[in-house]
Amino acid sequence: MSALTQAERRDYCIRFGDNALILGQRLGEWCGHAPVLEEDIALTNIALDLVGQARLWLSHAGAVEGEGRDEDALAMKRDVLDFRNVLLVEQPNGDFAHTIARQFLYDAWAVPLYQALSSSTDETIRGIAEKAVKESLYHRRHSSEWVIRLGDGTEESRARMITALDEFWGFQDELFEMDALDAKALAAGVGVDLAGLRPVWTAHIEAVLAQATLPLPGVTWRVTGGRRGRHSEHLGYILAELQFLQRAYPDAVRW
User: Fold this and answer.
1) Which of 22, 93, 116, 159 has the highest Cβ tally under 10 A?
2) Any idea what the Cα angle at residue 173 is, between residues 224 and 94, rounded to 5°?
3) For the residues of 1-65, what is the DSSP string, one character each?
4) Per-domain residue ranges for the chain?
């Protein structure tokens, strides 16, 4: 069993931290704009959960690296090409159905991911996962219930849900993509078999879509690259807003 180097352990944590950070930032855009007040609060709370997860992942990454970078430095001082989130989480909110579809696909993956990481030999990763799985179960229930409401609702809500799922369906493969770092983390007992999460993900997706009377998307295109730093044009705009204060006033502190 080959142990992970400090840099490899850092990079492994950064992947999950970036996923949570960027998706949390996206959901935060709904604050004050959701269809109803209750949903405005719900989406904002989910965004806060995700940002909290990002802080834990990036804080651990910085500690493992040992070069003095904390979660703020990793979130606010890296360039777009240094981010390692999957492409799905950086896609625009669109209408409410699009936001729910994106969240639904992500949540169905996050639950088995964190359940598996709860057995990591890295004590800190294990602790992050044990906390995150409780939050992710709620997130998955929330997005799944909305898929059912919209899919089995009015003609318009059904049509919007079908369109949204079609537009995001091609991003799924990246969630289960295993590269050399994933394989080494798995062999070391630190990481998980991402490819092995697909059956659980698929079973949940299919069960919810059946209850929502929605067809499985028939699109065949697939795209990956975010975890290798190859992002869509959307990530740059997200970071421009997220990192503005730090870039305008470097190392500013409250007083």
Assistant:
1) 22
2) 75
3) -PPPPHHHHHHHHHHHHHHHHHHHHHHHTTTTTSSSHHHHHHHHHHHHHHHHHHHHHHHHHHHHH
4) 6-248
Domain made up of 6-248: CATH architecture? Up-down Bundle (1.20)
Task: Using alpha carbons, select from 206, 41, 56, 187 the residue that is nearest to residue 123.
Answer: 56
What's residue 252's pLDDT?
80
How far apart (Å, rounded) are the C-alpha atoms in residues 209 and 180?
34
Q: How far apart are CA 122 and CA 188, in angstroms?
A: 10
Token code pair at residue 76: 């606010």
Q: What is the per-residue burial (b if ≥16 Cβ within 10 Å, else e) of 105-135?
A: bbbbbbbbbbbbbbebebebbeebbebbbeb
Which residues of the chain fall short of a pLDDT of 70? 1, 255
Q: Is 213 exposed, middle or buried (0-12, 13-18, 19+ CB in 10 A)?
A: exposed
What DSSP string describes 157-169? HHHHHHHHHHHHG
Residue 120 contacts residue 190 (beta carbons within 8 Å): yes
Helix axes 96-117, 6-28, angle to 10 degrees: 150
Q: By three-state DSSP, how is residue 127 classified?
A: helix
**What is the pTM for the complete model shown?**
0.96
DSSP 208-250: HHHHTT-PPP--------GGGT---THHHHHHHHHTHHHHHST
